């Protein structure tokens, strides 16, 4: 069973794969105990080796999952205590290698992210709609919905250099074939592991004593014939010098083609037909008895079209086809242009009509899943310098490349075009003369310019050297773990096919000079300006090269992390109930980053001269020249010094009263940026004298310090092309500048968990039931107001202090909104984790075993308080436009024999709402307010997905397998924000098949 990772507790499995080693034996009866992470002496029963396990950890589960290491060396992530017999109170889920294999995903991240307690994790289908975020294709976990920045991800219990300035690592860069198990700590662990462990910890444990050769070849494709997938993995391990020298290496290549953007209008990639351009329309009327907000399908903005539309004045409603020919636009809703200066359309809603000509809508162009290519290599050398001591070194070098299309076209509403522009068709020029006007308002999605593409390239170089083992000290044995880690991550972002706003403005302002059409501005002409015909879809190549140069926005980021860590654990003495265990240690960590951007985005004065970006006096010297992707220069660093102590005191150990212990820890941390902060935890477990019943509880004070991005953010600029200006009641082009704040202080969290578990009963063998209640309250939350909130709070005079953060009518430069982080918010969430498992050997007399398993998380509340005057807390539990549905569960049924296995898996989350702040009504509505707006439909359905899979042992060393995800090809629910890939499957049915081998 080496390397299979079976567990002795009943498991909630994501998948089932019958590996050759497992297939040669019949799994033993299961001892189900959804209890707590523990370390114990070897022993216990074996559970479902064929199927793999996801367990809510127990002592024997840890030992079984770590078969290649003596049981007394097993460290379960919920605690730093490693001595035998210890039971920690923090719930920890263990996913073994067989469960990971059974789910047959091209990235292990997807398998772990399916756990119900993980909400809001990012990946290749999340974060694809932004040009400037730099998070495209970044795989990172979020526990309890509190965000990836509040979830600590470790590799072999050690920190990993961030793949983004937020500090979160990219799971895609981990050595996936050597993963022996994954520990998911569902609760605060800052006292044991330090900053960021507010929501919990995800710890990947590698097989450090692997011997032999292991490989996997897998392919996949969707039912629409896209997102073609190839995965090739190979690992090898050996030993020498009488089994004292251990060498391990792995390499892998993965390619997912992704699902790109569709066409303009409502046509998605691959012929997917679920997109309906659903939109939340603001009527801007709050007191007429009707709802202020309307949730409508097939909404059509009336301030731009695919190839151009005159949007206001006497010529309003004249649109242009691809050839530049004028025609009368079909507004839908029987809309009739008012032909006034404001651009209203009679019969339509503010900003939108329903139906009509939908061809100009840009949302269908969004990438549904980023293209991703991973190349990863890992090596480890270890030498046993003593029977219980090892020195080792590891190297992990990996690269992840992704690309995506944020949206279709490059939308530009509210342009002013001169009637005398020689590109204006003669019929329109004549209409201008008849109407007595010299210019008109114009809007276009710029379909003729093509769509922007964002490319990211992340490279990680991570090296670790350390020593670990056990050593007798003063009559008792102590464990030690000392390591130094240095990691460097390089992140490159390149944006292609994107316009320079000022050059675009100069190019569309054309005139005739000496019989030739040229740019009207002489300075622009002298610097290469080429006139652009934006009427229709036939711009000249010279004009395209001028407004969209070959070298687009770029960002080059380097992050480094250096860590020195020392940890010791032992049992120096015993109490009346057993050995008293103690762990203590310290850590020093230094984080640094620097980022450099192109001069057109960052500004000429801030960036060295670059021949690829020649100076141009028509561009803004301070930067922000790109339509989007205006990256900035920056750098920052901080250091952390910390020390901790943890102790476990047995209280009860008798047949009459059962077994109980108290566990506590305290950590002091000194940040170079924000000073000293304390974290602590106190809890315990009690195995009742009732057969199979255990209770546990823990409460803790956890911390998250501001990261490099929040402290020293290079100003990130995002273009908001249709930003609504409530002061003038118009949509404007605005720039959002996100900047850092060096005065931030750590967030403080209080975590409490109480649980009860029934398992391992002699009367009910094979049955496991458990319930845990959790509550998290985070204060001094580092958060930023959205651009719209900043403007609206000023407009409504709720928070006048925000008025200085923006200018939407800026004659001296681009309109802007400055967004900055502050310790101003709080988050409070609570809910239940519920798990059940039953294992049936030889069901109905058939060979093999049948296992039924389920995990569920209920979020009772998830309340965010912005801390701003005039606002009220918002409960987003059950708001299905986010990532925290009321209920989320995962259920698996597996049947396994010595020759084959079958798996059926269900994923489900409950119906929800757009937001609990809304008052749903259709008539007789109360006055709509900022805190309690009225809406006609406040419902977003949940979803049910079924997956099936199976394996067949071709030989004793080779297993073929298949997996079908989303068997019923369930479409995502309609959403006013395009789609929510954090909850809904946006790809449809996916087929995967492959072969695994091990020698």
Automatic annotation (TrEMBL):
Residues 39-53 have a biased composition (Low complexity). GO terms for cellular component: cell outer membrane. It is a multi-pass membrane protein. InterPro entries: Beta-barrel_TonB (IPR000531), Beta-barrel_TonB_sf (IPR036942), Plug_dom (IPR012910), Plug_dom_sf (IPR037066), TonB-dep_rcpt-like (IPR039426). Residues 1-23 form the signal peptide. Residues 39-69 are annotated as: Disordered. Keywords: Cell outer membrane, Membrane, Receptor, Signal, TonB box, Transmembrane, Transmembrane beta strand, Transport. It is found in: Cell outer membrane. Residues 444-967 form the TonB-dependent receptor-like beta-barrel domain. The keyword Transport applies. PANTHER family: PTHR47234, SECRETIN_TONB SHORT N-TERMINAL DOMAIN-CONTAINING PROTEIN. Belongs to the TonB-dependent receptor family. This is TonB-dependent receptor. It comes from Sphingomonas taxi.
């Amino acid at each position: 069973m080496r390397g299979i990772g079976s567990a002795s507790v009943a498991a909630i499995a994501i998948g089932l794969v019958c590996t050759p080693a497992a297939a040669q034996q019949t799994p033993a009866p299961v001892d189900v105990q959804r209890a707590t992470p523990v370390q114990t002496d070897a022993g216990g029963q074996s559970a479902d080796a064929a199927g793999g396990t996801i367990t809510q950890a127990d002592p024997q589960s840890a030992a079984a999952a770590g078969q290649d290491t003596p049981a007394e060396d097993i460290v379960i992530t919920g605690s730093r205590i490693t001595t035998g017999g210890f039971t920690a109170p923090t719930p920890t889920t263990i996913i073994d290698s067989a469960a990971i294999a059974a789910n047959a995903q091209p990235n292990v991240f997807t398998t772990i992210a399916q756990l119900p307690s993980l909400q809001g994790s990012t990946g290749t289908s999340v974060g694809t709609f932004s040009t400037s975020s730099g998070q495209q294709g970044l795989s990172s976990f979020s526990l309890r919905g509190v965000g990836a920045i509040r979830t600590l991800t470790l590799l072999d219990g050690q920190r990993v250099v961030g793949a983004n300035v937020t500090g979160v690592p990219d799971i895609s860069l981990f050595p996936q074939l050597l993963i022996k198990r994954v520990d998911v700590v569902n609760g605060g662990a800052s006292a044991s592991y330090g900053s960021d462990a507010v929501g919990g910890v995800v710890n990947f444990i590698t097989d450090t004593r692997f011997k032999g050769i292991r490989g996997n070849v897998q392919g996949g494709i969707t039912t629409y014939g896209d997102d073609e997938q190839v995965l090739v993995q190979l690992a090898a391990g050996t030993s020498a010098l009488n089994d004292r020298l251990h060498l391990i290496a792995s390499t892998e290549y993965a390619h997912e083609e992704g699902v790109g953007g569709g066409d303009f209008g409502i046509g998605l990639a691959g012929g997917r037909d679920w997109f309906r351009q659903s939109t939340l329309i603001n009527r801007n009327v709050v007191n007429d008895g009707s709802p202020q907000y309307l949730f409508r399908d097939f909404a059509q903005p009336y301030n731009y079209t695919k190839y151009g539309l005159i949007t206001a004045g006497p010529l309003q409603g004249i649109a242009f086809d691809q050839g530049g020919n004028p025609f009368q636009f079909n507004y839908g809703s029987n809309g009739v242009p008012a032909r006034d200066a404001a651009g209203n359309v009679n019969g339509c809603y503010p900003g939108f009509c329903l139906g009509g000509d939908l061809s100009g809508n840009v949302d269908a162009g969004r990438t549904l899943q980023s293209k991703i290519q991973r190349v990863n290599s890992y090596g480890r050398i270890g030498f046993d310098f003593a029977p219980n001591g090892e020195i080792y070194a590891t190297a992990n070098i990996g690269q992840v490349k992704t690309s995506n299309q944020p949206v279709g076209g490059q939308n530009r509403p509210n342009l002013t075009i001169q009637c005398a522009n020689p590109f204006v068709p003669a019929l329109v020029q004549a209409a201008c003369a008849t109407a007595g006007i010299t210019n008109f308002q114009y809007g276009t999605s710029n379909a003729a310019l093509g769509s922007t593409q964002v490319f990211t390239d992340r490279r990680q170089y991570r090296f670790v050297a350390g020593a670990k083992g056990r050593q007798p000290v003063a009559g008792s044995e102590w464990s030690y773990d000392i390591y130094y880690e240095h990691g460097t991550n390089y992140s490159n972002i390149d944006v292609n096919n994107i316009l320079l706003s000022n050059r675009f403005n100069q190019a569309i302002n054309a005139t005739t000079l000496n019989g030739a059409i040229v740019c009207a501005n002489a300075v622009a002409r002298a610097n290469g300006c080429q006139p652009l015909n934006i009427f229709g879809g036939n711009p000249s190549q010279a004009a395209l090269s001028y407004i969209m140069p070959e070298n687009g926005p770029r960002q080059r980021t380097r992050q480094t992390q250096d860590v020195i860590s020392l940890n010791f654990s032992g049992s120096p003495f015993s109490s009346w109930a057993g050995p008293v265990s103690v762990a203590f240690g310290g850590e020093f960590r230094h984080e640094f980053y620097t980022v450099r951007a192109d001069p057109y985005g960052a500004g000429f004065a801030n960036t060295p001269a670059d021949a690829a970006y020649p100076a141009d006096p028509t561009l803004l010297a301070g930067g922000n020249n790109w339509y989007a992707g205006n990256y900035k220069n920056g750098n920052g660093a901080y250091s952390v010094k910390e020390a901790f102590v943890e102790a476990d005191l047995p209280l009860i150990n008798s047949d009459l009263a059962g077994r109980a212990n108290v566990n506590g820890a305290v950590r002091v941390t000194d940040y170079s940026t924000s000073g000293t902060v304390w974290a602590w935890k106190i809890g315990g477990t009690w195995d009742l004298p009732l057969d199979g019943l255990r209770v546990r509880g823990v409460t803790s004070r956890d911390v998250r310090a501001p990261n490099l991005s929040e402290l020293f953010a290079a100003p990130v600029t995002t273009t908001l092309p249709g930003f609504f200006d409530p002061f003038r009641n118009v949509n404007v082009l605005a720039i959002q500048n996100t900047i850092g704040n060096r005065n931030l202080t750590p967030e403080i969290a209080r975590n409490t968990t109480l649980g009860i578990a029934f398992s391992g009963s002699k009367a009910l063998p094979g049955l496991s039931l458990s319930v845990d209640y959790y509550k998290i309250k985070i204060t001094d939350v580092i958060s930023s107001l959205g651009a719209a909130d900043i403007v609206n709070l000023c407009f409504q005079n709720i928070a006048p202090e925000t008025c200085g953060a923006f200018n939407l009518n800026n004659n001296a430069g681009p309109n802007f909104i400055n967004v900055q982080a502050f310790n101003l918010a709080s988050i409070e969430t609570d809910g239940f984790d519920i798990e059940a498992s039953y294992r049936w050997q030889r069901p109905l007399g058939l060979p093999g075993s049948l296992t039924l398993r389920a995990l569920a998380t209920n979020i009772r509340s998830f309340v965010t308080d912005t801390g701003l005057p005039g606002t009220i807390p918002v409960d987003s539990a059950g708001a299905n436009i986010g990532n925290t549905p009321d209920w989320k569960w995962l259920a698996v049924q597996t049947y396994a024999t010595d020759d084959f296995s079958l798996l059926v898996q269900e994923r489900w989350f409950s119906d929800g709402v757009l937001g609990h702040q809304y008052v749903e009504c259709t008539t007789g509505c109360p006055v709509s307010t900022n805190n309690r707006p009225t809406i006609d439909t406040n419902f977003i359905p949940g979803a049910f997905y079924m997956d099936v899979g199976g394996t067949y042992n071709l030989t004793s060393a080779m297993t073929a397998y298949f997996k079908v995800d989303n068997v019923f090809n369930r479409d995502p629910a309609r959403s006013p924000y395009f789609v929510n890939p954090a909850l809904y499957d946006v790809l449809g049915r996916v087929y995967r098949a492959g072969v695994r081998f091990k020698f």
